[in-house]
């Protein structure tokens, strides 16, 4: 199950991604927002991130104007590794090397064609483990070192 959400600045791209997911047989849950309904990006990022941490969703896709705000907000939730991606290679590496559970996109900086290629690359990639798992473990250990 893929959790997908956007603020009002990412609704159009979210709808394009949902259509892609439907056409390719992916199950997803839309956490909002809908057209013309204002939504602050920290709120939607928290909702999707908590759905991933709880196991309600396996992965997440978040969209705002730039992708930066939702990425920062999602990464504040313990257990989340959210990656702001703007190209196919970064999306693939986010999963293979960093085991990112959420990718974050920006509607104002990434067109729908490229965004769909990014989503496809992310969803088709698998975490490679090995030396990369050691690094992911170190990232997650940083949460336990908070002051």
From TrEMBL:
MF terms (GO), sorted A to Z: ribose-5-phosphate isomerase activity
GO biological process terms, semicolon-separated: carbohydrate metabolic process
InterPro entries from the UniProt entry: RpiB, RpiB_LacA_LacB, RpiB_LacA_LacB_sf, SPI_LacAB/RpiB
Active site: 64, 97
Alphabetical keyword list: Isomerase
Top-level taxon in the UniProt lineage: Bacteria
EC number, UniProt record: 5.3.1.6
Positions bound to D-ribulose 5-phosphate: 7-8, 65-69, 98, 108, 131, 135
One Pfam family it belongs to: LacAB_rpiB
UniProt family annotation: Belongs to the LacAB/RpiB family.
Name of the molecule in the record: Ribose 5-phosphate isomerase B
Organism expressing this protein natively: Candidatus Monoglobus merdigallinarum
């Amino acid at each position: 199950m893929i959790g997908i959400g956007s603020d009002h600045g990412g609704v159009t791209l979210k709808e394009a991604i949902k259509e892609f997911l439907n056409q390719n047989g992916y199950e997803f849950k839309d956490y909002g927002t809908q057209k013309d309904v204002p939504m602050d990006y920290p709120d939607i990022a928290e909702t999707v991130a908590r759905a991933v941490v709880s196991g309600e969703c396996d992965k997440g896709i978040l969209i705002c104007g730039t992708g930066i705000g939702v990425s920062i907000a999602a990464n504040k939730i313990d257990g989340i590794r959210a990656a702001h991606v703007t190209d196919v290679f970064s999306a693939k590496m986010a999963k293979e090397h960093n085991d990112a559970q959420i990718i974050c996109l920006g509607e104002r900086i990434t067109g729908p064609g490229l965004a769909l290629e990014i989503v496809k690359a992310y969803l088709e990639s698998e975490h490679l483990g090995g030396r990369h798992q050691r690094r992911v473990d170190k990232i997650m250990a940083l949460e336990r070192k908070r002051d």
